[in-house]
Specification:
Blueprint: E1 5-10, H1 15-28, E2 34-38, H2 42-56, E3 63-68, E4 83-88, E5 91-96, H3 101-105, E6 112-115, H4 117-124, H5 127-134, H6 139-142, H7 144-152, E7 160-162, E8 172-175, E9 181-186, H8 187-191, E10 198-203, E11 206-213, E12 224-233, E13 236-243, H9 248-252
Parallel strand pairs: 1-2, 1-3, 3-5, 11-12
Antiparallel strand pairs: 4-5, 4-6, 6-7, 8-9, 9-13, 10-11, 12-13
Helix pairs in contact: 4-5
């Protein structure tokens, strides 16, 4: 029997750390397909996780999705932001808290379980390993793959039930290689804004009014527009800011995390 497919999105994204993470997951999960990608901010991870769930829904094969975006500014934790566990269908989710925001928006999860590295490791490992991993500078390498294995094996993981971040501001969550900007605004939400075939909005307090088109193929060459993109879950897709044949990112000066009102 093949192991689970594993998808990891992490801000520890240089070749050395990604290779080490892949090697550790390979060592723990035999006969598994493992994919990893670097991200920079939590909303990128949230969108990538949602898109991955959408892709996986054609098959009920057990899978694991990992999201690691640990804000270095959060100093009130002993050794970095905690990791949480959730499950939807046959997919196990292990991530830092804000990575779950879009899954909650789409109704795919309601609660998440907060785990403490030292407490969990003490259930399964000798004391010297517990302390080594608890004090590690690289918990997403030392702890998360083990946590994923224990959850996959059906072990009882100690933790505290919590809710994911439930309120997120509309923003750009991804910019593709063509310069198209994926937003967190859903198709239904964007249609509510249409007036006379156009949509008015602001990005970082700068105002715009753009025509709305269903598909990128409908947008005339060189024209700025709002379309319904390919990302999302099932029949609910996200709106995108595009320019036919030109990078919207460069034209508007867009970045991931830019707020949209």
């Amino acid at each position: 029997m093949k192991g689970p497919s594993i998808f990891a999105f992490t801000d520890c994204r240089d070749p050395n750390t990604l290779t080490r993470l892949n090697a550790r997951l390979t060592a723990l999960f035999e006969d598994s397909q493992i994919f990893s990608a670097g991200i920079e901010v939590d909303i990128e991870a949230a969108g990538c996780i949602l898109d991955t769930l959408d892709a996986l829904r054609l098959n009920n094969r057990p899978s694991i999705i990992i999201g690691n975006l640990a804000p270095r500014s959060e100093k009130h934790y002993k050794n970095g932001a905690p990791f949480y566990i959730a499950k939807t269908g046959s997919v196990i989710l292990i991530a830092t808290k804000t990575c779950f925001s879009l899954l909650f928006k789409f109704g795919l999860i309601e609660t998440i379980k907060e785990t403490d590295v030292e407490t969990v490791c003490r259930y399964f490992l000798p004391e010297d390993e517990v302390m080594r991993i608890s004090n590690s500078q690289f918990r997403s390498f030392e702890y998360v793959p083990l946590l994923a294995k224990w959850v996959y094996e059906g072990k009882d993981i100690p933790g505290v039930d919590d809710r994911p971040q439930t309120q997120i501001e509309n923003q750009i969550w991804w910019i593709d290689n063509f310069g198209n900007a994926k937003t967190t605004i859903t198709e239904a939400e964007i249609r509510d804004r249409i007036t006379d075939g156009k949509i008015s909005f602001s990005i970082n307090k700068k105002s715009y009014t753009l025509p709305f088109f269903e598909h990128l193929a409908d947008v005339p060459k060189g024209e700025k527009a709002i379309i319904i993109g390919s990302s999302g879950y099932k029949n609910t897709r996200f709106a995108e800011i595009v320019i036919q044949g030109v990078s919207a990112q460069k034209e508007f000066g867009l970045s991931v995390g830019d707020l949209i009102a």
